[in-house]
Design a protein that fits this description.
The chain is α/β, with parallel strands linked by helices. The protein has a single domain, classed as HAD superfamily/HAD-like (Rossmann fold, 3-Layer(aba) Sandwich), CATH 3.40.50.1000. The protein is 47% helix and 12% strand. A 5-stranded parallel sheet has the order 3-2-1-4-5, with helices on both faces. Helix 5 runs parallel beside helix 8. The protein is globular. The structure holds 2-acetamido-2-deoxy-beta-D-glucopyranose (3 copies) and magnesium ion.
Length: 259
């Protein structure tokens, strides 16, 4: 446990920007893996099976990760596997994108979710048990306002490829309007420098589920003449519902569930 807290604080000290490529952190993580790799050994479910269940949307409506999986999920997120799993998703998305012939009207859009898709909140979640603690909107909003979230490196690569192929990018996020300037500055700062739209939730909109909210926003895009050819997110609620897009791509996220 002590070693783990040491790891978490090392991550914070590194201020997130370089975390994904920090060999010190990666090497320490690998030392832990043989002992905690599948999070099994205790009573009941292995953490690897639990992760499979949540990534496939078989396990739904969960509010926190099992307490015994904190170390497993932390290792997964900070280690090499999260990166590798993301790379596979991005590679498929890129292959699909390059197989398309864009229409000439300039209305072909690719939707990007923000949290755990375009930007990583790992520095925040490392301080909050990688999803063991219940979600706290107040402290999470404070984190957003720091504008310190790093880019997910693979997603940023896809973004740049899509821009050069001629796609329009629409960021569609459940973040609230009151965080708009912080969110936009953070996006620009880490390399997402252009977009067609950044769609955020109205501050007063607290009722609809994310699935309903995102469906309504996409429906409006289609009504406005856009063609949603691709859509990438870390939650199934980003990718299900109305007008999800011709193809959807699911990034890993074993830390939280949004309906
Ligand atoms: C794209 O255009 C090329 C050349 O016109 C054509 O051979 C190909 O089948 C088209 N691909 C799709 C997916 O429409
Ligand atoms: C949520 O975060 C705020 C701000 O950091 C904190 O004051 C509050 O105690 C937290 N609430 C819970 C239930 O932990
Ligand atoms: C996307 O799907 C729509 C509706 O099914 C279809 O008309 C369109 O040709 C598709 N576009 C691409 C790029 O596959
Ligand atoms: Mg997300």
């Amino acid at each position: 446990m002590l070693l783990f807290f040491f790891l978490a604080s090392t991550v914070l000290a590194a201020k997130a920007q370089a975390d994904f490529n920090n060999p010190l952190i990666n090497n320490l993580i690998y030392l832990l893996r043989p002992r905690y790799g599948s999070g099994g050994g205790g009573n009941g479910v292995s953490c690897l099976s639990w992760r499979f269940g949540v990534e496939t949307n078989n396990i739904i409506d969960w509010s926190t990760i099992p307490e015994k999986c904190e170390l497993y999920v932390g290792n997964y997120m900070l280690g090499e596997q999260y990166r590798k799993d993301s790379e596979v998703v991005i590679k498929e998305a890129y292959l699909y994108a390059t197989s398309l012939n864009l229409s000439k009207d300039g209305k072909d859009v690719w939707i990007f979710d923000i949290d755990e898709t375009s930007l990583s909140n790992l520095p925040y979640y490392a301080r909050h048990g990688f999803g063991v603690e219940p979600f706290n909107l107040t402290s999470f909003t404070e984190w957003i306002l720091t504008e310190d979230a790093p880019a997910l490196p693979e997603t940023l690569k896809l973004y740049k490829s899509l821009i050069s192929l001629g796609f329009k990018i629409v960021f569609l996020s459940g973040r609230y309007e009151k965080t708009r300037s912080a969110t936009e500055r953070n996006l620009i700062y880490v390399g997402y420098k252009a977009w067609e739209k950044v769609l955020l939730r109205k501050d007063s909109d607290k009722s609809a589920s994310s699935l309903e909210y995102k469906s309504a926003q996409r429906k409006q895009l289609v009504k406005d003449g856009y063609s949603i050819v691709g859509n990438i997110g870390d939650q199934w609620s980003d990718l299900l519902g109305t007008d999800p897009g011709n193809r959807t791509f699911k990034l890993p996220d074993p830390m939280y569930y949004i309906s």
